Amino acid sequence: MEPILELQSARLLMRQWQDEDLPAFAAMCADPQVMRYFPAPLTRLESAAVIGRIRGHFSEHGFGLWALERKDTGEFIGFTGLGVVGFDAPFTPAVEIGWRLAKEHWGLGYASEAAWTALRAGFDQLKLEEIVSFTAQSNLPSEKVMQAIGMHHDPQDDFDHPKLAVDHPLRRHVLYRISREQWLQTLHE
Ligand SMILES: CC(C)(COP(=O)(O)OP(=O)(O)OC[C@H]1O[C@@H](n2cnc3c(N)ncnc32)[C@H](O)[C@@H]1OP(=O)(O)O)[C@@H](O)C(=O)NCCC(=O)NCCS
Fold first, then answer.
1. CATH number, domain at 116?
2. Domain-embedded: residue 66
3. Does residue 115 line the site of ligand 1, with CB under 6 A?
4. Could you tell me the distance, in angstroms and rounded to a whole number, from the CA of residue 2 to the centre of ligand 1?
5. Which part of the chain is the N-acetyltransferase domain (predicted)?
6. 108 ligand 1 Cβ < 6 A
7. For the segment 125-154, what is each residue's pLDDT rounded down to a tens digit?
């Protein structure tokens, strides 16, 4: 299958990563508010390594976390996309949808707009049967994006993230799912 290198939504270009994205990406990942629901903010070196892993995922799978560029200003504002879940859990193997935006660009609907576009690529182009999403139980802004794009939550699916220590406050995660059928239904609503 052809790799999905680029997508577009009304206000966003979802593109491959450029070396020039590093300063803005590193600033975003060093921001304690953006990283509130992750174990820790990232150093510049760690952010560079994340970009490397994202590029590797695109090479291996033909899809991944697209860099988001605002069409009106040309600014890099974060990422949204699809990834193969990298740990074992009752719901894996699975493809997840995820997002992270710099806080100046929150509250404008960009995350949901990009997520909707990524979801459509997952079902329309990649022909996935299901897409999942998960986040720390306290991360309500992220859960709102999951709900906004029509994902469903069954509390019985919630799980302890295996990569976090047993006593870590962020360990408990909510899991949302959307099947191809459910996605098709949202198109007719
Ligand atoms: C999770 C995250 C991406 C959500 O960003 P967001 O901007 O709140 O999400 P959306 O794009 O859905 O925007 C929705 C908000 O924009 C508002 N909005 C403004 N214009 C809008 C438009 N044209 N369309 C939709 N919503 C719009 C909505 O009212 C809503 O505001 P509210 O939250 O005050 O109700 C952001 O908080 C983030 O990057 N967090 C840090 C990283 C993170 O935790 N990632 C997830 C880890 S699993």
1. 3.40.630.30
2. yes
3. no
4. 31
5. 12-181
6. yes
7. 999 999 999 999 999 999 999 999 999 999
Give me the residues paired with residue 65 across strands. 81
The pLDDT of residue 189 is 85
Centre of ligand 1 from the C-alpha of residue 147, in Å: 11
pLDDT in tens, 6-48: 999 999 999 999 999 999 999 999 999 999 999 999 999 999 9
Identify whether the C-beta of residue 118 lies closer than 8 Å to the C-beta of residue 100.
Answer: no
How many domains does one find in the chain?
A: 1
Q: Tell me the CA–centroid distance for residue 122 and ligand 1, in Å.
A: 21
pLDDT of residue 136: 97
CA distance 162 to 124: 31
Confidence of residue 58 (pLDDT cuts 50, 70, 90): very high
- Ligand 1: centre distance to CA 127 (Å): 27
Q: How far apart are CA 98 and CA 146, in angstroms?
A: 9
- Residue written as tokens 């220590």? 165
Query: Looking at the domain assignment, is residue 1 inside a domain?
Result: no
In-domain check, residue 2: no
pLDDT of residue 179: 98
Q: How far is the CA of 17 from the centre of ligand 1 (A)?
A: 22
Ligand 1 site, residue 111, Cβ cutoff 6 A: yes
Range of 172's domain? 7-188
Ligand 1: nearest atom to the Cα of 98: 48
CA-closest residue to ligand 1 atom 32: 107
